[in-house]
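pls read this protein.

:::
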Amino acid sequence: MIKYLAKNRTTVAADGRVEIAGRGATSGYAIQAIVNGTGAVTATVPIEVSNDGNSWSVLTTMAPSGTNIGTAIFSAVAPYVYIRANTSAITGSLDVIVSW
């Protein structure tokens, strides 16, 4: 299954949560952040996780960058129920995808 955590984002924001597995599950998942535009593009994307949807912890911070396009990939097996992308900086247009 594939879900967008962010799609065509051009501003700093925390998106709504996506349920990644049943409560306490330990199934693996992968996250890909892609930033694109003209010239130098970059983004700083803390990936946050939660078991209750209210208290969030940073799992990792992704930093895709490049010329015209940049990408970053992260994979994990972690017992969380929800995940979200909380973009803290961006130059270009950002998509963040989670798959499991």
Summary: The first strand starts at residue 2 and ends at 9. DSSP finds no helices and nine strands in the chain.
